[in-house]
Write a structure and sequence with these properties.
4-stranded mixed sheet, about 15% strand, 2-enoyl-CoA Hydratase, Chain A, domain 1, about 280 residues, 6-stranded mixed sheet, 11 helices, binds coenzyme A, alpha/beta
């Protein structure tokens, strides 16, 4: 039998901003900041995420964006009260407008963000929490994190593109299993299914994500952006379209890359013999 929940006690009203941003050493740490609600996504949190993502995208001090959650949760999905219950009485048109902001940042904006993104899954991650995990370019979870497609447990399906995010990363059998059972799984299992890149003990999570971010900060930012966008775009293209798109990207890079990294790298490898592309990045 399920453990009964504690009787609700009065808790202090939320006073802090629903999203917290700290910038250090080129990394923007973006924290979903409603720990008392397990960082469930409210309309206010969505609006603030869109605002912060816009600001960080053009901030020259930021090279990598990390998304994580305050307290013991990454994100407990959409806020059942402020999102679902609040939108139940709305018309179809009003619902579309109401939902747009949450879709905006959770997958549309993050999927094609101009800077590299990492999801740092520190704890509970349910339903819509999967969206930002999958839409970030890379994801690292704590072994102790708990994931679940809980929608089946409360008369919902994983909508809002949660199911699309899930089947894009996990295999078909696993997607069906967790969608249909609503069973939870931990960070190690998430990594073994491809939902995240890897999992590490919670005590080592921030260090691992910092190290990963530093690797990305060392790359040519223009190349990195084109490479990650290409990786996401070619999935839905056929082979002909993909080949054409990728050659066009190479042409585009010649004009877009202020570092002219390709020329620099070829000079360093072929002429100066100062580095090996197979073993690391060219010297900037
Ligand atoms: N929407 C709205 N409120 C939520 C929420 C959500 N998705 N997830 C948690 N909360 C709120 C609870 O209502 C509670 O609020 P209260 O203090 O006003 O009563 C508070 O956050 C703490 O939740 P609680 O269940 O007591 O915390 P817990 O640590 O024991 O359990 C979870 C954590 C994540 C397992 C549990 O909160 C849960 O099952 N949440 C729903 C997850 C879900 O199904 N999300 C899918 C949405 S698409």
């Amino acid at each position: 039998m399920a453990t009964p929940r504690k009787k609700a006690v009065a808790r202090p009203a939320e006073t802090e901003a629903p999203v917290k941003v700290d910038i250090a050493g080129g990394i923007a740490w973006v924290t979903l900041n409603r720990p008392e609600k397990r960082n469930a996504i409210s309309p206010a949190l969505s609006a603030e995420m869109i605002r912060q993502l816009d600001l960080l995208e053009v901030n020259p001090e930021v090279g990598v964006v990390v998304i994580t959650g305050a307290g013991n949760a990454y994100c407990a999905g959409m806020d059942l009260k402020e999102f679902f219950r609040a939108s139940d009485p709305l018309s179809a048109e009003e619902k579309a407008v109401f939902s747009r902001a949450s879709a905006q940042w959770q997958w549309r904006r993050l999927n094609y963000y101009m800077k590299p993104t990492i999801a740092m899954v520190n704890g509970w991650c349910f339903g819509a929490g999967f969206n930002s995990v999958v839409s970030c370019d890379l994801a690292v979870a704590a072994n102790e994190a708990v994931f679940g497609l809980s929608e089946i447990n409360w008369g919902m399906i994983p909508a809002g593109n949660v199911l699309k995010a899930t089947v894009t990363t996990m295999n078909h059998r696993d997607s069906l299993y967790y969608t249909m059972t609503g069973e939870t799984f931990d960070g190690k299992k998430a990594a073994s299914m491809g939902l995240v890149n890897e999992s590490v003990p919670l005590s080592k999570l921030k260090k691992r994500v910092t190290d990963l971010a530093k690797i990305l900060l060392d790359k040519n930012p223009t190349t990195l952006r084109q490479a990650k966008h290409a990786c996401k775009r070619v999935i839905s293209m056929d082979w002909d379209a993909s080949e054409d798109y990728l050659f066009a990207k190479i042409d585009q890079m010649r004009f877009l890359d202020p570092e002219q990294g390709r020329q620099k790298a070829m000079t360093q490898f072929l002429d100066e013999k100062t580095y090996r592309p197979g073993l690391g990045n060219y010297k900037k």
